[in-house]
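Q: What would this complex look like in 3D?
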Amino acid sequence: MKFFVDTAEVSEIRELHEIGLLDGVTTNPSLVAKSGRDFKEVVKEICEILPGMPVSAEVAATDYDGMMAEGKVLAALADNVVVKVPLTLDGLKACKHLTDQGIKVNVTLCFSANQALLAAKCGATYISPFIGRLDDLNLDGMELIGDIRVIYDNYGFETEILAASIRSANHVSQAALAGADVSTIPPAVLKKLASHALTDKGLDAFVKDWKATGQSIV
Ligand code: G3P
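A: Here is my prediction, written as structure tokens for the whole assembly.
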């Protein structure tokens, strides 16, 4: 499974990339607003940190012409920009036409299998089902990931399933089990994936026992 980090905070992206965990980045208007940075500047900076890795940047327009105009500007910022459009009829049309022009598109705000089917038919590179927001409504976000996996496999669609709105470590493993191609994960959740109480306990014991030997390795 590929890991994208879901943030517009450059310091967090650098830190996780240095560990070697990242395959890409997703941003959205809310995350850009939270960063307080200029949108285009921050996208360019992220693209430079992760050359060749996909970096999703979302259009602000909601009409087809506006999305096309903004999508082209965003795609010109760097080779690795993926233009993110909302799952509306205008967004699907923009997805189709941007894709036809060789621009990669991430269709976001997906909440149903039918929406995911339409995005694949319009050539989306990624479909972003929002797991956490479905769970918030007492629905089953993970079931949606599984349904999309079956539909895409039934018809050989190459659109990658990008599990989004991930809120917990369990969401990541469940999305992997359900067959998502990618999870986009908030930095704090990504770091939590490494932790386990028994790892900490076992390491404490090893450190204590090693000290008792009085030896050093270097
Ligand atoms: O990738 C989309 C994600 O950022 C939305 O997450 O937690 O706002 O539902 P959330």
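A: To summarize the key features: The pocket of SN-glycerol-3-phosphate is lined by residues 6, 26, 28, 130, 132-133, 164-165, 167, 184 (CB under 6 Å). The mean pLDDT is 98.
Q: Very helpful, thank you.
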